[in-house]
Amino acid sequence: MARSILPLDFEKEMIARKWLGDKTGQGFYKRARAGDNKEIQVLDWKTLEYRPLQKPRFPSVEAAKAIEEIGERLRTLLRSNDRGGQFPLEGLERSVPLLGRDDPRDFGPHRRDRSRHALGLRQ
What we know:
Elements: H1 9-16, E1 29-34, E2 37-44, E3 49-52, H2 59-65, H3 70-79, H4 83-95, H5 111-118
Antiparallel strand pairs: 1-2, 2-3
Helix pairs in contact: 2-3, 3-4
């Protein structure tokens, strides 16, 4: 089922609070000052409170960074099961529609295994 374009509850609350982005000084992000330091804070949509922005860290990405050869680096990343490896694999699956699928409508539980197999990434 497709999501309607109507705002979600937290988006309605953001609109009511006039948290509309840069022009109003805050939205999904805001710049906060702590003395002479500036930091970017991100909105937690569940609590509607701001917290410091943290870069995500994934073991697969850290492991892949240490590999010089690009093919092996990519294989290492795509073989992983964390979000750092899932993200590029999902992108490949979208850009190569029949990747590892006998039926293009197949989005079953073994889709990821078939995609990895089609890419030569057997585990």
